[in-house]
């Protein structure tokens, strides 16, 4: 019986974690960001102690977000109307997430200082030696393609909603341009992960459906490849 109770406790805890990841937008962002940071750590020369600090920092952020979710659910369960104390409780719980997130940014900055400075320098050099006109051409053409497609389909407005998602198109277009102009696998991976976060945020905010985001992403990706090929890249 004790073993069954222990297993049930683990199951309940895992169910809570899955619920938070599925339903909470910020939790999804934390998970994706944590994966990105851990992948980056694999390609850097951080020590075991630094890796331990990184894991503890990630755990703190996740725990704070879970605590915030629990507080919000409890308040929503106990009251269905506005109350100033409910506002205080929710804001205070959210503040714990904010503080741990700021701490995580500071920790990440110091742990990856050398990599950040190196990537920043390489990025500046990349911009200096790339064609700004080509980047501008891609941005304008992808934006026009999105607006024209929306006009033909007749959904949403030119700048919000409808088929396809303009944010997803631009995000994946930028990620594709970075992949063309950069020789770093890490930079390419991070660029597309950021594009995925942008696309996911459009679905989470219910501005676009998953289909609209996928079509927008493909439009930006394929249009950018076509333009770069035409210019001989």
TrEMBL record:
Sequence ranges assigned to domain Phosphatidic acid phosphatase type 2/haloperoxidase in this UniProt record: 131-228
Active site: 65
UniProt: ATP binding residues: 12, 72
GO MF annotations in UniProt: ATP binding; kinase activity; metal ion binding
Membrane topology: Multi-pass membrane protein
Cofactor binding: number and manner: Mn(2+), Zn(2+), Cd(2+) and Co(2+) support activity to lesser extents.
Keyword Cytoplasm applies: no
Primary location: membrane
Keyword ATP-binding: yes
InterPro entries recorded: DAGK, DAGK_sf, PAP2/HPO, PAP2/HPO_sf
Coiled coil regions, renumbered to chain: none
Gene3D superfamilies linked to this entry: 1.10.287.3610, Phosphatidic acid phosphatase type 2/haloperoxidase
Annotated compartments: Cell membrane
GO BP terms in the entry: phospholipid biosynthetic process
One Gene Ontology cellular component annotation held by this UniProt entry: plasma membrane
TM stretches of this protein: 27-44, 91-112, 133-153, 168-201, 213-231
Cofactor(s) needed: Mg(2+)
Keywords annotated in UniProt: ATP-binding, Cell membrane, Kinase, Lipid biosynthesis, Lipid metabolism, Magnesium, Membrane, Metal-binding, Nucleotide-binding, Phospholipid biosynthesis, Phospholipid metabolism, Transferase, Transmembrane, Transmembrane helix
UniProt binding sites for substrate: 65
Residues at which a divalent metal cation binds: 72
Assigned protein family: Belongs to the bacterial diacylglycerol kinase family.
Protein's recorded name: Bifunctional diacylglycerol kinase/phosphatase B
């Amino acid at each position: 019986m004790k073993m069954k109770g222990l297993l049930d406790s683990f199951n309940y805890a895992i169910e809570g974690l899955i619920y938070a990841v599925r339903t909470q937008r910020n939790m999804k962002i934390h998970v994706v960001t944590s994966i990105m940071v851990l992948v980056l750590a694999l390609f850097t020369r951080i020590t075991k102690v630094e890796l331990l600090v990184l894991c503890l920092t990630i755990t703190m952020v996740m725990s704070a977000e879970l605590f915030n979710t629990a507080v919000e659910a409890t308040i929503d369960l106990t009251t269905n109307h506005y109350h100033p104390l409910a506002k205080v409780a929710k804001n205070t719980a959210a503040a714990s997430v904010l503080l741990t997130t700021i701490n995580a940014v500071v920790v990440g900055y110091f742990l990856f200082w050398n990599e950040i400075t190196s990537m920043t320098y390489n990025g500046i050099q990349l911009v200096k030696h790339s064609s700004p006109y080509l980047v501008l051409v891609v941005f304008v053409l992808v934006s026009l393609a999105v607006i024209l497609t929306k006009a033909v389909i007749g959904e949403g407005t030119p700048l919000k909603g409808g088929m396809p998602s303009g944010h997803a198109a631009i995000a994946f277009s930028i990620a594709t341009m970075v992949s063309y102009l950069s020789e770093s696998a890490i930079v390419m991976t991070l660029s597309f992960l950021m594009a995925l976060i942008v696309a996911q945020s459009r679905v989470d905010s219910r501005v676009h459906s998953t289909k609209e985001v996928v079509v927008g992403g493909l439009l930006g990706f394929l249009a950018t490849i076509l333009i770069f090929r035409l210019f001989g890249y």
